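Form 7-S
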Amino acid sequence: MERLRIVFMGTPEFAVGILDTIYQHNHDIVGVITAPDKPAGRGQKVKYSAVKEYATEKGLTLLQPTNLKDEAFLAELKSLNANLQVVVAFRMLPEAVWKMPKLGTFNLHASLLPQYRGAAPINWAIINGEQHTGVTTFFIDEKIDTGAMILKQEIEIGPNELAGELHDRLMELGKDAVIKTLTLIESGKAATTLQPVAGDLKTAYKLNRENCKIDWTKPGIEIHNLIRGLSPYPAAWFLFKDGEKEWDVKVHETEFIAESHDKATGSISADKKAINVAVQDGFIRIKSLQFPGKKRMAAKEVLNGMSFSADAMAS
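Output:
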């Protein structure tokens, strides 16, 4: 049995949970690779990645390359003498990087591959109304999320579960999957399964302003799934129009009420606890939302300080 010498690559909070588990299991982490620092927010204050903060706190060797093909970086990476690389929520690696360690480079992906390859698997599983998802470990190859699979673990998605909640549960599942994968590789027992190259495969497209906008003409359950699949971040949004006033409003929590009615699609009404938007097959009850420049608020808080006309519309 060859003792593992691991280089870990990752950037966001999801990756930190996995890195910490590897650390807590006393594996030898010889280096951590994360994104370069970048200015963020109105003050353009330099922001460190969540992985950098963790690695710095633990005194781990840290590299922040801007170019993964840079000869100086590749030489520094090679000097760490890792025999395995673990990748969680990082960017696409060039062949010179993923082929470097003797035991290979594996990735943890937050879906049941081959479904939901791509940048936002947690979000799209909810947006598409899936009832199950999970995590997969696989050896990286030259394409995105297509390599030979090592391990899969599955969980159910709750009917009203938000992306943030599923993120946290998948991180816990991912911790277990990564430790099991490390054990298999270390003991030489990591059997792999090739991913199918064809079939009815769904993609986890990168999220942008356009695919986060609510289309109120769609069935209510699809709208509800979009909103919970984007909550809390980056959040679904719509244009709230009342007379000459117009706001970009983010929506965080909703409920779909299936009901026949004669109201115009997109018309807005309110009761004491929620803002209701009419859709073709019922109402979307908005429970929490965020107006521009404001913090996220419960709908009843918004209604305490705001009134709108009977002609208000969502678009």
